[in-house]
């Protein structure tokens, strides 16, 4: 199973922008993800939806944060995230891709800064691979602006991902031994910037029950799409779900 970083944004967008202090919600959803890897056709996966906002700690789907400082407009936190991107050759339908090594998901440790204004919110985040699967560093700069109506909240967003050469080479590179086994060209990836746009919707059915939907589209950078493992120029993720607020 391969789930790209798009899922982290699609699932966490509401938790980082519309939850109130002390609020906890739990739910279930389904994510449709167009994998960029060749030979991978399993596009739909069930996922839990979890968020909690406390005075000193939060859970925003796959990211937990310890708040170091917070006021009406600013938030600085240390973060621990589970990055679910991985590649399993046994799940692949392409004969050459089946000969490649597995790429594992990993935990990342880092920090995040939020700035909230009337015109929207800015996020700057960076983290490194704590389990040393890729040994890489990733980052994000993004802007989102909640538009609240009576029962419906819309949150458009725009941003850019950064991935260093170690991260990209682990997930998209092809080593010499892999090339000899598979027949794919040997490939080493460099660092990259990947822009994205997103839109989330949250509809309140009752005092505690909510329907959610989030879509994220991003353009793959040259160092990713030029890999012989990849057969797309872009990536799209759609998440739909139901959550209960406690």
Mean pLDDT: 89
* Helical run tally: 4
Helical content stands at 10-25%
Shape: globular
Distance between the termini: 31 Å
Broad structural category: mainly beta
Give the spatial strand order of the biggest sheet. 1-2-3-4-5-6-7-8-10-11-12-13
Element order: H for helix, E for strand: HEEEEEEEEEEHHEEHE
Rg, rounded, reads 18 Å
- The total strand number stands at 13
Poorly predicted parts: none
Q: Please give the largest β-sheet.
A: 12 strands, antiparallel, barrel
* Beta-strand content estimate: over 45%
Structure commentary:
By secondary structure, the protein is mostly beta strands. Helices cover 11% and strands 50% of the residues. A twelve-stranded antiparallel barrel has the order 1-2-3-4-5-6-7-8-10-11-12-13. A hairpin with a 3-residue loop joins strand 4 and strand 5 (74-83). The longest helix is centred in the last third of the chain and has 8 residues, at 165-172.
Outline of the structure:
The protein is mainly beta. It is 11% helix and 50% strand.
What attributes does this structure have?
246 residues; mainly beta; twelve-stranded antiparallel beta barrel; 4 helices; 13 strands; globular
Could you outline the blueprint of secondary structure elements for this entry?
Layout: H1 6-12, E1 23-33, E2 44-53, E3 57-60, E4 63-70, E5 74-83, E6 106-117, E7 120-129, E8 137-144, E9 147-148, E10 152-163, H2 165-172, H3 176-182, E11 192-204, E12 209-219, H4 222-225, E13 234-245
Antiparallel strand pairs: 1-2, 1-13, 2-3, 3-4, 4-5, 5-6, 6-7, 7-8, 8-10, 9-10, 10-11, 11-12, 12-13
